[in-house]
Write a structure and sequence with these properties.
Length: 71
Amino acid sequence: MKILMAYYRYSPHTNGPSSYIDILKKSLEAKGHTVNLLSHDKKWLNIQIDNQQTADKYSLKCELIRRYQPT
């Protein structure tokens, strides 16, 4: 199963929730699942997936508003 975990803070981070998410991700992967983590980057300017692929947060927000805002 493919799983996308969304986390508001940036990752990697060193606090309780981040530790839990890391453990959960590794546990799910050990069971054969594909897990990606969507989070902010350290500067809070971009959205990242697994600390690799990034997208500008402001541009993404504008595009989502354009697509889904009722007219």
